[in-house]
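Example complex used in Figure S2.
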Amino acid sequence: MSSPLDLAEAHPGPAFTVTLDGREIEALPGQTVAAALWAAGVTSWRTTRGEGRPRGVFCGIGICYDCLVTVNARPNQRACLVPLHPGDAIRTQEGTGHDD
Amino acid sequence: MTDRPHLAVIGAGPAGLAATVAAAAHGVRVTLIDSAARAGGQFYRQTAAALHAGRPQALHHQWRTWERLRDGLEAHVRADRTVHLTDHHVWLVDRQLNHFTVHALLGPEQETPVEVRADAVLLATGGYEKVLPFPGWTLPGVLTAGGAQAMLKGTLAVSGRTAVVAGTGPLLLPVATGLAEAGVDVAALVESADPKAFLRRTRALAAQPGKVVEGAQYAAQLLRHRVKLLTRHTVVEAHGDERLEAVTVAALDTDGRVRPGTGRRIACDTLAVGHGMLPHTDLAETLGCRLDGLDVQVDDEQRTDVPGVWAAGETTGIGGAALSLAEGHIAGRSAAARLHGTEPDPRTWATAAKSRTRLGEFFAALDTVYAPPARWADLVTDDTVVCRCEEVTGGAIREAVDGLGAGDVRTVKLLTRAGMGWCQGRMCEPAVAGLAGCELTASRRPFARPVPLGVLARAGEAESEAESEAEAEAESD
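Predicted assembly (577 residues):
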């Protein structure tokens, strides 16, 4: 088995485009922000308020709030929970996400 | 169906599903309220529908049990005996004189309030993973073992090519084998306990032959994927600058200390790490249910000490899916009988009660084997971040304890802000308690999740209007 999609014999609908900081990336229907970013090779998409350290997915189930991201100008969305739609604009966020 | 008594079941994992099916089959109107888009909870977390997985069972265990639960739920929904509310994030259950109001926030943005009124409530809120800190655990690429599994099951996503799975507990086995099956090179499974100790508990093992077979199957899968199993080892440090590049693992001595000179570096881009599970008890606590340690306390019928509130599954103690099913079944039957004003007959759930006892003993034995290394706190350096949200370091916590005399989690929190961030201490609390040298106790959180102020301000308005009308009517009678 080479990929989880093969393992589960997934046949998602056609990929669509979203943007990450203006750069186009492909996403599959059903993917969350975190899953699409992982698939695009991105594992961190915010920096912390205090030390400016990079963060990405930690708990994967919405408990830890480490994967916060700005989606369609709304800051502090949990990337592991939010499903993507064609044309969504994801932005990496710094600190509280309100000063970007 | 409106004249039937109404039970609100919170959580659509194994316990909540078993309870819903049992209660609905016995004449109760059930509203099953869950935060996910599809039923299943974490154990049966379903792949997003739009990914059209032709073989979702490849990522699961006990798939036939899931099919039975799913079909049961669907039948009750079709027959109008049950309503399944998905994407509803419950933040509070409010108890009034003769009913309960469940307050939820709707959808991924969690801003639209929804209220469900019910005669009784069954809490099947499950658990979440405990992770203890070590240098580098905040690096992207380090995630919880359950998180790696959730991303895999839910969205068929993996974050890298080479993973190390580490920590302690039975969850590490399905995580390591799941990642390996999905094409990830699992460089090592690092278990801090010595599972051989488990073999000495032959009584608990003999009572659960199914679990022994399950263990053997995992062992075979690990062998097949050439996953190196390191027992009595721990991850000492995660390395990397912007993301994870490698981990250092080392052997532990019998006292749980790292044995000097045994460290070795393993290159990896993913570290899936977990140290056991904690029950979700926020809703139970705000309802005033008594806890036994960290677990919601229940009687033989799965009733809490608050009238009208039942609890089942991992919220009453961590014990896996099979135990949750048994508890959920009992809770659903008990609630159905009591809502009809009758005394339930425990003989009707004798099989479930027997498996509840056996599985309870099995997990008690498991707990004594799978414990984090006794000296895990030695690995937390002064500049290791302990509270991930507020970026409070091990040094700051030690200063609060040693310099300022804090002796409990609450005082450390007030002095350092550890636990005051987004996750409300869910991630750092076990570590803070450990570093402060005190028992981990359940912490009181007024709401189970963040709530927009506007929603909070409006909550109960409709309720209090209805109540004052009812009161006015009662007075005029």
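Chain B touches chain A through 55 residues (CB under 8 Å). The mean pLDDT of chain B is 92.
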